[in-house]
Amino acid sequence: MPEPNRKIKAARVEIGKTQKDMASFLEICPKSYISKENNDIDFTESEIDKLLNYFNRKYEDLFMNV
Fold this sequence. Notes:
It is built from 5 helices and no strands.
């Protein structure tokens, strides 16, 4: 089982957004967003770009395990 993306979750919780809010922002269904946040499926390149802009973060801040 893949490790959840805790960085995405932390950024989302920090600004008070739910998984449903983020799914709506990315124009995907909540179930898909949850699967992506849990690393069951990958975010698309365009979704990654949207999230980086939304959270005003760099790729390595949200998607790289350092």
